[in-house]
Design a protein that fits this description.
Length: 112
Amino acid sequence: MNTNIIIRYVYRILAAWLSLCLFASPLLAEPQLLAIPSGTAQLGSRHGEADERPVRHVPVAAFRLSRTEVTNRDFDAFVRATSYVTEAEKRSWGWVWTDRWRQVQGANWRHP
């Protein structure tokens, strides 16, 4: 068998393996989720913007939260697997914090 053919074959196997490691493994890994019990949360501020007042208490149902943050790589794998489109991508603008929240055309998780 020709050495070049063997090298190309090995290269394809390695490329497929690397692709699986980079994109499928976050989806296959079981996330560590913390159970957050139901309760009440205090929302708002006495000193914030007009739409942040008044301080109020709201009920919050129990939920689970990942122990670690979601990386862009993790989110990219999720998007590739599910074809999910964020609200910012649908409307072609997103909220960006500078000294305050601003609507920025074209801003989304891929283009913060």
